[in-house]
Amino acid sequence: MSIREQERRQKQAEKRINGQMRRADKEVRGAMDGRSRQADLRAKEIVRRIEKGDADPRPLPGLREDSLDSMEPMKSMESSESMKSMESADPVMEVNTDGAEAHDAGKGMPLEEHVPFNAAEMEEDLAGRITGDTGGHGDPHAHNEQKAGELAEQMTEDTGAGGDMTEHAERKVARHGEEMFEE
Fold this sequence. Notes:
Layout: H1 3-52, H2 119-131, H3 140-156, H4 165-182
């Protein structure tokens, strides 16, 4: 898909979104106006009833017939006895991570003679395969920086910001402002 086609689709999507937002604003504004009118009518009715004197004031809460004395609180149930704690397991062996190396990971395992396993070599191989397309040569940090740069370039190409996300955002805001004032 060409850049112009992408820009055209993006503008169409933005116009649809802006139209939906305007429609939603009108609906909300109409609902707010309706509630405001209803509140004004209720306020006028209250003022009229007070001025004419046909409003009976409500009795105080303690004097109303629906006021009842509070009930006695229920007694709480007796709690059950706690279970006895289990004893801690004895440590199988002491583990010293100071001199641990990845290539010693499979030593002493039951399948050692059947499945040769070298974790360090596998780690290097996997890192090389993952970072090979960016030229990271097994370094995930270089790979991530390269990928982030590529993504920033792709995301900012419609505004011509050249990978600068701040510049991209400023240009987008300016473009949206211009479009809103055109309509």
